[in-house]
Design a protein that fits this description.
Blueprint: H1 2-32, E1 51-56, H2 63-69, H3 74-84, E2 98-103, E3 110-116, E4 121-132, E5 135-146, E6 150-159, H4 164-170, H5 175-183, E7 200-210, E8 213-227, E9 230-238, E10 244-247, E11 291-294, E12 300-302, E13 307-314, E14 320-325, E15 330-337, E16 339-340, E17 347-348, E18 353-356, E19 367-374, E20 377-379, H6 394-411
Bound molecules: zinc ion (ZN).
Amino acid sequence: MTANNKIIKHLFLFVLILAFFGIFYFENQKASGVGKITDAPKAEKEIIADKKKIVKIGDGDTYGILMERAGVGALAADNIYKAAADNYDLAKIRAGRALELIFEKNTDNLKELVYKIDSEKELSVRDKIYFGGTATTSEWTAEVRPINYEVKIVTKEGEVKSSMYAAALENNIDERAIIAFANAFQWTIDFAMDPRAGDKFKFVYEERYLDGEYVMPGKILAGYYINAGKKYEIYYFKETDENAGYFDAEGNSVQKMFLKAPLAFKYISSGFTTGRRYVKAFNVSTGHRAIDYAAKYGTPVRSVGNGTVVFSGWNGPYGYTVKVRHNGTYQTKYSHMSKLAVRRGAKVKQGDVVGYVGSTGFSTGAHLHYEMKKNGVKINPLKEILPPGKPIKKENRDRFFAEIEKWQEYLD
Ligand SMILES: [Zn+2]
């Protein structure tokens, strides 16, 4: 019995060793490619192209000159130009931007040209090689595609001492990000008149990188601004492909019937200030039933809401003036302008430019005099409570509240 047992044990061990080497052999074969099923021939040859040349576009440079300088043959340059034509006219490349030329590593053949059209889109013209059997054909193929940034999500905050703009700079926040953040509040806060010392703000946004280098801020995703103790929140939400924008924490669009200010934030960024800057508030006791915004000569003045221009011309002591009738209740007036941009009878949309800041009429310096009338009576536009914006559709509300939870964690 003992001998039999021993034989069985040895047999078992032998089988085990065989199995082990068998697997080892098979794995090796796989690694070396022997016995591997050959891939079906691809329609398009994979390009190993990793030599990139960045050709900066200077003043007076043309596409032809740049391609010649980069050592690209005239025929290839011409074929690329023609292939791109339906998507983008390469004669329109702009100074300050660049052509990216990608060459095949082993042959030094030009394989792709990339040109960034704007901050969102780029043109790509690629040499696509097709081969079937023995014949190989090559064709330049163009497309406009979104720029594929690497995105980092960042949170920034600050406390207002003189203005939100100054607070943002103190906290090393990119100027472009603070302008985009303020724009999301353009129906809620007048950053020239409303901010108070001690106001706080915090927001989450995307930073865009290319090849590891910071390029620009991307979307503002969420944020709050606490003005005189009251918290205002914004959340970016894509309700449908056509309808994306900012909503408050209750899911109402932040867009309202009127903008808070007729001047965009970027022109009034130094905010509430006393002293040298000339900003006059609405004041019943002094009889100044309007808001005066200090702004540089030529700053665009925008209509705060949709409406019809009912007056455009010289208005005595008010100088060049535009009046917009928004509906049966509201009318706004913009005065002392240097130039008018609309005619009487024109239909304007919210944000449309109606004129430019000046100092015409009875005025001591460049500023905008802005009035709002409700049922014929001058009112303080900053105090006017407007109905909330459109709410998110019922079927999208669960998705909205689930999505903003994530941002609320960032803001806590
Ligand atoms: Zn005034």
